[in-house]
Amino acid sequence: MLETSGLRDAMATALDMSRALPSDAGLKGYGVAELRDASTNEIKLYMPFANLINTAGDEYYAKQAGRTQPTNGGGGTLCTGMRLGTSNTAAAKSSTGSALVADVGTGSYQAWNTGYPLQAAVAGSDTGWYISYQCVWAAGTVTNGALYEVVIVNSNTLYASANTYSRAVFGSSINKTGSDSLTVTWNHKFLGA
Predict the structure, then answer these.
(1) 111 by DSSP, 3-state: which?
(2) For the residues of 77-100, what is the DSSP string, one character each?
(3) pTM beyond 0.85, yes or no
(4) Is the CB of residue 67 less than 8 Å from the CB of residue 76?
(5) 55 phi/psi in degrees, rounded to 5
(6) 110-161: per-residue pLDDT in tens?
């Protein structure tokens, strides 16, 4: 049986971390990286994180909201997955820190896990709505002892600021060995006005 109380606690910690960030266009981003020994399925680490939604992400969400028909509002290029990196440079709205700083190379990009992004769901009574994203790096994919950053991107090959909608920096490095799987579950919460 999978242990879920630790994941719930880590997600609650991540949400608290996001509350400390300045509110940006009514959006908050937070999530959890879950490192698991793939052979035993045992949890090795929960790493909660909060993120900034960068300027390209603000534009993306605004264009999606203004899209009443496929041809109206120019909805922007849909986000398609995540990439991992090794820089702990602080996240930023634009310029350095708004996109992946140090890509890990082969296997860095992963498309959405089956069923993601999840459709928007109510976060609670009058507390906003959220959308969830999730990617999995299986055992043998991206073996690195210093994973610090993760981004949501709209391309499997491009990850400049214009192709990056969110970037998060983990509080400490994640050591993903060849026998580990890594799952990143990321929420963007819309707070409303």
Answers:
(1) strand
(2) PPP-EEEEE---PPP-SSSTTSS-
(3) no
(4) no
(5) -60, -40
(6) 999 999 988 666 666 666 778 899 999 999 999 999 999 999 999 898 888 8
